[in-house]
Structures are given as C-alpha cells and as structure tokens.
Amino acid sequence: MWLSKKCGYVFTWRLLKDRLPTKGNLLRRNVAIQEAVCPLCGQVQEEVGHLLFNCKRTIGLWWESMRWIQAVGPLPASPASYFAQFCDGFGADINHCRWYGWWVALTSAIWQHRNLLIFQGNPFDSSKVMEETMFLVWSWLKARDKGFNTSFNHWSSNISDSFG
Ligand SMILES: [Zn+2]
C-alpha cells in the first residue's frame, strides 16, 4: 500500500509531527530566512496547517476532494486533527484505504509544488497539483490492484466512483 513507499511514509510522519521545514518552523529553529510569509498567498506566516489546508490557493483542492464523497463540514486547523477527520471520511461510507492514499498524495503534491515555487520560481498552479495528484493515485491503484485496468481519462472523469 501507499505507506510501503518510504518517502511517502517519512513525509506524512513529518507532516503530522509538524516537522516539515515550513518558514514558521525555520524561524522557531532560529534559521535566518528573508521572509516568513506563506509563499502561495503572501498573507500570513507559513505554517503547515495553513499552507496545506487553509491557504486560499490550496483550500479549493480539499473542497473539490470532499465533493467526491459528498462530505461537508468545517476543516480543522491542525494537521493531525485534519488527518483524523479527513481519513475518517467525514462519516461518509467510503473506501478508507483509497481515501487515505488520496490524502497522502495531495499533501505531498502541494508540498512539492510549494518547493518548486520557492527553489525554482515555478508559479504555483493548483489545477496542475490536482492533475498530478490524480495521476499519482491512478498509478498507485494500477500498481497495487491487478484487476484495475481503467484508463486514466475514464478514471479521472469518474473519480468519485473510486472512493465509494
Ligand atoms: Zn497562504
């Protein structure tokens, strides 16, 4: 499953323990940085809960994902409670393993694109993040499930079926 990939596991562990090198965390470790604001919106200090879940540039990705399982509800601010609530599926009757895979894939893709912006100046494009995450999860499903032979285009246009 997803966790067997070492990097995914380490990333998720660091995320839940708030050990990712966000600007807020660098400041707390007394690392000299030029500015501490969120690189995506430039409005508040960059903390992991803001960057991945509540920033105006990323929150739409979660709203869109939640629509697939018809979930509604307020989004908690701390990554750990967010993880717990999201992976529980907001009480919806869903395939939890796949839903969890989606969470890991989306958080890592946001973090990766945030890094591409900071270190390479690539503009952050949330629709690109969404597309890449879909492709990642489709490849994962294909690799772990021999009976899975849906084409990417078909799968991604019927993605809510995947979590039901
Ligand atoms: Zn932001």
What's the short story on this structure?
The protein is an all-alpha fold and about 160 residues long.
What would your notes on this structure say?
The mean pLDDT is 86. The chain has one domain. Helix 6 packs across helix 7. The radius of gyration is 16 Å and the shape is globular. Helices cover 60% and strands 0% of the residues. Zinc ion binds next to loops.
**First and last CA, distance:** 18 Å
Q: What is the N-to-C succession of helices and strands?
A: HHHHHHHHH
Please, what is the oligomeric state? single chain
Low-confidence stretches: none
Strand content bin: under 5%
Task: Count every helix, treating DSSP H or I runs of 4 or more residues as helices.
Answer: 9
Q: Cofactors and ligands present? A: zinc ion
Described by the principal axes of the CA atoms, the overall outline is: globular
Structural class: mainly alpha
The description of the largest β-sheet is: none
| Rg (CA only) | 16 Å
**Total domain count:** 1
The level of helicity is: 55-70%
Total number of strands? 0
Overall pLDDT? 86
Layout of SSEs?
Layout: H1 6-16, H2 23-28, H3 48-54, H4 59-68, H5 79-87, H6 96-120, H7 126-144, H8 152-157, H9 159-163
Helix pairs in contact: 6-7
This protein binds zinc ion.
Essential attributes:
9 helices, binds zinc ion, globular, mainly alpha, 164 residues
